[in-house]
Amino acid sequence: MAALMRGVMIVAIFASFASVAFATAGQATFYTVYTPSSCYGDQDQGTMIAAVSADIFQNKAACGSMYTVTCTSGTNLGVAMPCRGGSVTVKVVDLCPGCSANGFDLSQEAFSVIADPNEGRINIDYVPA
């Protein structure tokens, strides 16, 4: 039994490394008006949500997709250490037409989990959740 548990632990450890290794780099900003959205119209989808760049959105194919987003650094000199550590999982609800490739426009609540909102724009890594 101990050997089986050890094997499970080793697989779990390597799986966690793989998810970090396959993360995609991008940038994130935040917004505060959540409805209507391109995916759900006037239906409220909560506050852990995001609008994404066209390359991710793919003509609504990404609607409802979940992504885990991690702050990696700030993009300006406004806040010395904007990242708060940890990650946040968000649901895609909208297109962000102003976002560059691999861009996320997070809800203010989601952004605040991973970074100081005074930074405004952060560098991120993201993976499908």
UniProtKB/TrEMBL annotation:
Domain of life: Eukaryota
Keywords on record: Secreted, Signal
Protein name per UniProt: Expansin-like EG45 domain-containing protein
Example GO biological process: systemic acquired resistance
InterPro entries in alphabetical order: EGC1/2 (IPR044206), Expansin/allergen_DPBB_dom (IPR007112), RlpA-like_DPBB (IPR009009), RlpA-like_sf (IPR036908)
Annotated organism of origin: Saponaria officinalis
Domain Expansin-like EG45: 25-129
Record-linked PANTHER family: EG45-LIKE DOMAIN CONTAINING PROTEIN, EG45-LIKE DOMAIN CONTAINING PROTEIN 1-RELATED
Subcellular location(s) per record: Secreted
UniProt signal peptide: 1-23
GO CC terms, sorted: apoplast
